[in-house]
Amino acid sequence: MSVAAKAPPKQDRARATYDRLLDVAGLLLAEEGIERISTNRIAAEAGLSPPALYRYFGDKYAVLEALGRRLMERQNAVLEAWIERHRSGGIAAMAGHIGELLAETAAVTRAEPGAVWTLRALHATPRLVHVRLESHRHVTDRLTDACAPHLPAIGRDMLWRRLRLAVELGFAAEEMTNEEDCVPADAVLADVTAMLGGLLLDLTPLPQAGGVGGGQGQSGGPPRCD
User: Fold this and answer.
1) Which residues cross the membrane (predicted)?
2) What pTM does this model have?
C-alpha cells in the first residue's frame, strides 16, 4: 500500500521546518538504518515535538517518501537543465554529454543528507517502491520528449522502452559507485557513459532505400502504467 504523503508546505517558515525534519531524518537514516529510526527520534533531533512533526508527516514511511521525492526533484532539475543545454544539438550532442548528466546527478545525490540510504529504502521497502518507479518513468518521459523529434522513424513506444532501460542502467551505475569498493567510481562512470552514449547513437537509423526505416510500430506514446 502506498504512503499517503502530504504535499510540502508552501509558506517559507513551514517549509524551513519541513526541510529541517527531512535533513535530520536523512542523517539518522544513514546512522541508524530504516528499522531503528522513529518519528519521535526525528522530532527530538530536530528540536520539535512529535505533534509538530505529525503536521507534516503521518508516519516514518511518509518521511522516507518525502526524502525520496525531494532527492528526485533535485535530480530532475539537473536533467531539465541538461536537456535545455543539449537537445537542440540532436542525438549526437546528447550522446556526447551523457557523462556530464551522470556526474551532475551524482553530485546532487552526494549533497543530499542520507541520500544513499534513502535510495536503499526506496528499493527495500514495499511501501516506497512506487516513488522510485514514478521517478524513473518521469525521467524516461522527458528523455523521450527530447529525443523523439530527432528520431522520426522510430516509434515512440520503442523509443520509450529503450530509454527506460537506459535510465535504469544509469541509476544502477550511480548506486554501484556508492556501494562497490572493488571498482573505482570514475571507471564505473566512464563505462556507463560509453554504454549509454552508444545506446543513443544506435537509435539513429541508417539511410535506407525508400526513405523510411526503423519504424517499429508508430504508436501514440509509451505504455500507460497508471
Assistant:
1) none
2) 0.85
